[in-house]
Structure formats: C-alpha cells, structure tokens
Amino acid sequence: MPLPHGHRLKPVEAVQGWLTQAGISDGPLFRRITPGGRVLAAALQPEAIAAIVKKLAKRAGFDPAAFADHSLRSGFVTSAVEDGASALRVAEITRHRSLDTVATYVRRLDAFRSHPGERFL
C-alpha cells in the first residue's frame, strides 16, 4: 500500500523512526510495550488498540464510550472524503470491497457542507 511522505505529520518518517527506535526489522509494526518501555515481539490486539484510543479520547476531553479501534479507520475515511478524495480511491487504501461499506465509515461533522442541493434549495 502506498504511503505518502506528508508535509505535516510525515508518516513515513514517523514509521521509520519507530522501527529504528524499537529495533524492529520484521514482524508486526504495532506491538505491545511493557510498562518499563520494552517493545515485545507480539502484535497489539484489537482490544488493546481500542483501550489506547479510549484512553486518548478521554484525555482529549471526549466521551471514551464513543470511541474504539475502528474510530481510527472512520477518522481516516471521513477526513479523506471531506478533503475531496474519491470513495473508490479510499476503498482501495482501506481494502474495502464495497463502496457501501466505505460510506458507513464517513462521520460528517457538518452534514450540510457541500450538500448536493445547496445551489438550488
């Protein structure tokens, strides 16, 4: 899957830094980390990812019950669509087989922004 280098978040640079810092040369990218900071070989499980997302949502002042591991995918899909990416291209990146499934991940903050009927209503 292609990953853009980016201008603000620089995901490629961040992943390369993580791989170097964690000493990862093969295996899972996202791994368990001990309380002492040691990176383990075991991959993070979905439940652990959900717990991390909930913890960070709470820290940011949101209701953690409204977030889970799929919030990351939903956030990506929503941001991409809001920024003008085609649903077909988003599905290619997220590996969804159906555009209907991609549409279920879009969480519009402003339902009336770019409304198809705004010019004639």
Overview of this protein structure:
The chain has 121 residues and is mainly alpha-helical. The protein has two domains: 1-44, no CATH class; 45-109, no CATH class. 44% of the residues lie in helices and 7% in strands. Strands 1-2 form a two-stranded antiparallel sheet. The protein starts with 10 loop residues before the first helix and ends in a 17-residue tail after the last helix. The model has no long low-confidence stretch (mean pLDDT 85).
- Oligomeric assembly: single chain
- Kindly, what is the distance between the CA atoms of the first and last residues, rounded to a whole number of angstroms? 41 Å
Rg calc:
18 Å
Number of helices: 5
Q: How many distinct folded domains?
A: 2
Quick rundown:
This protein has helices at residues 11-22, 46-59, 70-82, 87-94, 99-104; strands spanning 31-33, 39-43.
Structure keywords:
mainly alpha, 2 domains, 5 helices, 44% helix, globular
Question: Which helices and strands occur, and which strands form pairs?
Answer:
Layout: H1 11-22, E1 31-33, E2 39-43, H2 46-59, H3 70-82, H4 87-94, H5 99-104
Antiparallel strand pairs: 1-2
